[in-house]
Protein backbone atom coordinates (compact mmCIF):
# COMPACT_ATOMS: atom_id res chain seq x y z
CA UNK A 1 0.00 0.00 0.00
CA UNK A 2 1.58 3.26 -1.10
CA UNK A 3 2.30 6.06 1.39
CA UNK A 4 0.05 9.11 1.32
CA UNK A 5 2.66 11.48 0.03
CA UNK A 6 5.76 11.02 -2.11
CA UNK A 7 7.26 13.87 -0.05
CA UNK A 8 7.65 11.40 2.79
CA UNK A 9 10.35 9.69 0.69
CA UNK A 10 12.48 12.82 0.26
CA UNK A 11 15.90 12.89 1.99
CA UNK A 12 15.66 13.88 5.64
CA UNK A 13 18.16 16.72 5.12
CA UNK A 14 16.01 18.34 2.43
CA UNK A 15 12.79 18.18 4.43
CA UNK A 16 14.69 19.44 7.48
CA UNK A 17 15.70 22.58 5.57
CA UNK A 18 12.13 23.16 4.38
CA UNK A 19 10.72 23.08 7.89
CA UNK A 20 13.39 25.38 9.36
CA UNK A 21 11.85 28.30 7.49
CA UNK A 22 9.85 30.70 9.70
CA UNK A 23 6.33 29.26 9.89
CA UNK A 24 3.33 30.20 11.98
CA UNK A 25 1.53 27.68 14.17
CA UNK A 26 -1.30 27.11 11.68
CA UNK A 27 1.14 26.25 8.89
CA UNK A 28 3.03 23.88 11.16
CA UNK A 29 -0.17 22.18 12.27
CA UNK A 30 -1.25 21.70 8.64
CA UNK A 31 2.14 20.18 7.77
CA UNK A 32 1.87 17.65 10.59
CA UNK A 33 -1.28 16.33 8.91
CA UNK A 34 0.55 15.20 5.77
CA UNK A 35 2.16 12.04 7.19
CA UNK A 36 3.86 10.62 10.25
CA UNK A 37 7.30 11.29 8.77
CA UNK A 38 6.60 15.01 8.46
CA UNK A 39 5.17 15.18 11.95
CA UNK A 40 8.22 13.48 13.49
CA UNK A 41 10.59 15.88 11.71
CA UNK A 42 8.59 18.92 12.80
CA UNK A 43 8.52 17.72 16.39
CA UNK A 44 12.30 17.17 16.28
CA UNK A 45 12.91 20.70 15.01
CA UNK A 46 10.30 22.54 17.05
CA UNK A 47 10.36 20.31 20.12
CA UNK A 48 10.95 23.18 22.54
CA UNK A 49 8.02 25.02 21.00
CA UNK A 50 5.66 22.07 20.82
CA UNK A 51 2.86 24.30 22.08
CA UNK A 52 2.70 25.65 18.53
CA UNK A 53 1.14 22.33 17.53
CA UNK A 54 -1.49 22.24 20.27
CA UNK A 55 -4.31 23.48 18.01
CA UNK A 56 -4.02 20.26 16.01
CA UNK A 57 -4.19 18.13 19.18
CA UNK A 58 -6.69 20.20 21.11
CA UNK A 59 -9.83 18.18 20.57
CA UNK A 60 -9.55 14.96 18.55
CA UNK A 61 -13.18 14.17 19.42
CA UNK A 62 -14.35 16.97 17.12
CA UNK A 63 -12.65 15.41 14.12
CA UNK A 64 -13.89 11.93 15.06
CA UNK A 65 -17.45 13.29 15.37
CA UNK A 66 -17.21 14.91 11.92
CA UNK A 67 -15.91 11.66 10.44
CA UNK A 68 -18.66 9.67 12.12
CA UNK A 69 -21.35 11.98 10.73
CA UNK A 70 -19.85 11.75 7.22
CA UNK A 71 -19.61 7.98 7.53
CA UNK A 72 -23.33 7.79 8.33
CA UNK A 73 -24.26 10.00 5.38
CA UNK A 74 -21.96 8.32 2.86
CA UNK A 75 -20.80 4.91 4.11
CA UNK A 76 -18.29 2.89 2.10
CA UNK A 77 -19.89 0.20 -0.06
CA UNK A 78 -21.07 -2.80 1.93
CA UNK A 79 -20.12 -1.23 5.26
CA UNK A 80 -21.79 0.32 8.29
CA UNK A 81 -20.45 1.73 11.56
CA UNK A 82 -22.04 2.49 14.92
CA UNK A 83 -20.76 3.83 18.24
CA UNK A 84 -20.19 1.16 20.89
CA UNK A 85 -19.39 3.09 24.07
CA UNK A 86 -18.32 6.57 22.96
CA UNK A 87 -16.81 8.44 20.00
CA UNK A 88 -13.47 6.70 20.51
CA UNK A 89 -14.91 3.20 20.15
CA UNK A 90 -16.86 2.16 17.04
CA UNK A 91 -18.19 -1.14 15.84
CA UNK A 92 -18.34 -1.81 12.11
CA UNK A 93 -19.70 -4.43 9.76
CA UNK A 94 -18.70 -5.40 6.22
CA UNK A 95 -20.38 -7.65 3.70
CA UNK A 96 -17.83 -9.55 1.63
CA UNK A 97 -17.73 -8.15 -1.91
CA UNK A 98 -19.41 -10.07 -4.71
CA UNK A 99 -17.12 -12.02 -7.03
CA UNK A 100 -14.59 -12.50 -4.21
CA UNK A 101 -13.77 -15.49 -2.02
CA UNK A 102 -15.54 -13.72 0.82
CA UNK A 103 -18.79 -12.95 -1.03
CA UNK A 104 -21.81 -12.78 1.25
CA UNK A 105 -19.75 -13.16 4.42
CA UNK A 106 -20.54 -10.95 7.41
CA UNK A 107 -17.39 -9.47 8.95
CA UNK A 108 -17.45 -7.58 12.25
CA UNK A 109 -14.76 -5.11 13.25
CA UNK A 110 -13.70 -3.09 16.28
CA UNK A 111 -12.38 0.43 15.71
CA UNK A 112 -10.60 2.27 18.53
CA UNK A 113 -9.21 5.79 18.33
CA UNK A 114 -6.44 7.08 20.57
CA UNK A 115 -6.23 10.57 22.05
CA UNK A 116 -3.50 11.28 19.49
CA UNK A 117 -5.78 10.64 16.50
CA UNK A 118 -5.28 11.48 13.63
CA UNK A 119 -1.50 11.46 14.17
CA UNK A 120 -1.80 7.82 15.17
CA UNK A 121 -3.91 5.48 13.03
CA UNK A 122 -7.06 3.97 14.48
CA UNK A 123 -6.68 0.46 15.85
CA UNK A 124 -8.90 -1.76 13.71
CA UNK A 125 -9.34 -5.46 14.41
CA UNK A 126 -11.59 -8.10 12.90
CA UNK A 127 -13.85 -9.85 15.40
CA UNK A 128 -14.69 -12.38 12.70
CA UNK A 129 -12.05 -14.96 11.80
CA UNK A 130 -10.77 -14.34 8.27
CA UNK A 131 -8.41 -16.47 6.21
CA UNK A 132 -6.36 -13.72 4.58
CA UNK A 133 -2.63 -12.88 4.29
CA UNK A 134 -3.14 -9.28 5.47
CA UNK A 135 -5.17 -10.14 8.58
CA UNK A 136 -3.51 -11.62 11.67
CA UNK A 137 -4.79 -14.68 13.49
CA UNK A 138 -6.00 -12.35 16.25
CA UNK A 139 -7.81 -10.18 13.69
CA UNK A 140 -5.26 -7.40 13.77
CA UNK A 141 -4.34 -5.21 10.81
CA UNK A 142 -1.14 -3.28 10.18
CA UNK A 143 -2.17 0.24 9.15
CA UNK A 144 0.94 2.28 9.91
CA UNK A 145 2.34 2.07 6.38
CA UNK A 146 -0.90 3.06 4.67
CA UNK A 147 -2.02 5.71 7.19
CA UNK A 148 -1.37 9.43 7.28
CA UNK A 149 -3.23 12.05 9.26
CA UNK A 150 -4.85 13.50 6.13
CA UNK A 151 -6.77 10.25 5.67
CA UNK A 152 -10.19 9.57 7.16
CA UNK A 153 -11.65 6.43 8.68
CA UNK A 154 -13.81 6.04 5.55
CA UNK A 155 -10.63 5.99 3.44
CA UNK A 156 -8.99 3.28 5.51
CA UNK A 157 -12.18 1.18 5.60
CA UNK A 158 -12.23 1.30 1.79
CA UNK A 159 -8.59 0.16 1.73
CA UNK A 160 -9.45 -2.78 4.01
CA UNK A 161 -12.53 -3.66 1.95
CA UNK A 162 -10.45 -3.68 -1.24
CA UNK A 163 -8.12 -6.26 0.31
CA UNK A 164 -10.92 -8.83 0.16
CA UNK A 165 -10.70 -8.74 -3.62
CA UNK A 166 -6.98 -7.98 -3.94
CA UNK A 167 -4.82 -9.43 -1.15
CA UNK A 168 -1.38 -7.84 -0.82
CA UNK A 169 0.63 -11.06 -0.49
CA UNK A 170 3.95 -9.22 -0.83
CA UNK A 171 3.36 -7.30 2.42
CA UNK A 172 1.60 -9.92 4.56
CA UNK A 173 0.77 -10.08 8.23
CA UNK A 174 0.32 -13.85 8.14
CA UNK A 175 3.33 -15.25 6.27
CA UNK A 176 2.04 -18.83 6.21
CA UNK A 177 -1.18 -17.83 4.47
CA UNK A 178 0.78 -15.58 2.09
CA UNK A 179 3.01 -18.54 1.18
CA UNK A 180 -0.03 -20.72 0.47
CA UNK A 181 -1.54 -17.90 -1.60
CA UNK A 182 1.59 -17.77 -3.76
CA UNK A 183 2.30 -21.49 -4.08
CA UNK A 184 -1.04 -23.30 -3.63
CA UNK A 185 -3.69 -20.92 -4.89
CA UNK A 186 -6.48 -23.52 -5.13
CA UNK A 187 -5.89 -24.58 -1.53
CA UNK A 188 -5.93 -20.93 -0.44
CA UNK A 189 -9.21 -20.26 -2.23
CA UNK A 190 -10.86 -23.36 -0.78
CA UNK A 191 -9.84 -22.46 2.75
CA UNK A 192 -10.87 -18.80 2.41
CA UNK A 193 -14.34 -19.86 1.24
CA UNK A 194 -14.60 -22.49 4.00
CA UNK A 195 -13.69 -20.00 6.75
CA UNK A 196 -16.15 -17.47 5.32
CA UNK A 197 -18.95 -20.03 5.39
CA UNK A 198 -18.03 -21.23 8.90
CA UNK A 199 -17.24 -17.98 10.71
CA UNK A 200 -18.64 -15.03 8.72
CA UNK A 201 -22.28 -15.73 9.50
CA UNK A 202 -25.18 -13.42 10.23
CA UNK A 203 -25.59 -14.95 13.72
CA UNK A 204 -22.33 -13.80 15.26
CA UNK A 205 -22.34 -12.28 18.74
CA UNK A 206 -22.09 -8.50 18.66
CA UNK A 207 -22.60 -5.61 21.04
CA UNK A 208 -24.52 -3.92 18.22
CA UNK A 209 -27.77 -5.05 16.62
CA UNK A 210 -26.98 -5.23 12.89
CA UNK A 211 -30.21 -6.99 11.91
CA UNK A 212 -31.65 -4.08 9.93
CA UNK A 213 -28.43 -3.63 7.97
CA UNK A 214 -28.35 -7.37 7.23
CA UNK A 215 -31.97 -7.35 6.09
CA UNK A 216 -31.27 -4.36 3.84
CA UNK A 217 -28.47 -6.39 2.23
CA UNK A 218 -30.68 -9.49 1.98
CA UNK A 219 -28.44 -11.49 4.30
CA UNK A 220 -31.28 -11.94 6.81
CA UNK A 221 -34.93 -12.45 5.96
CA UNK A 222 -37.24 -9.63 7.14
CA UNK A 223 -38.94 -10.47 10.42
CA UNK A 224 -42.69 -10.84 10.32
UniProtKB/TrEMBL annotation:
Highest taxon in the source lineage: Eukaryota
Residues the record marks as active site: 142
Span of domain UBC core: 59-201
Coiled coil: none
Assigned keywords, A-Z: ATP-binding, Nucleotide-binding, Transferase, Ubl conjugation pathway
Pfam families with a match to the protein in the record: F-box-like, UQ_con
GO MF term set: ATP binding; transferase activity
Family designation: Belongs to the ubiquitin-conjugating enzyme family.
Protein name: UBC core domain-containing protein
Organism expressing this protein natively: Castanea mollissima
Amino acid sequence: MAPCSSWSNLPRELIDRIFRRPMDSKDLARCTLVCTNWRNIIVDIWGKKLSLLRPAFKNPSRRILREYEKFQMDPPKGCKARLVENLFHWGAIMIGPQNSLYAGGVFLLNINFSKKYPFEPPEITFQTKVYHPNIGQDGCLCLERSWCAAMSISNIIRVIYALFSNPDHEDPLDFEIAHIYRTQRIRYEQKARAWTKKYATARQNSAIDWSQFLMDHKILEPQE
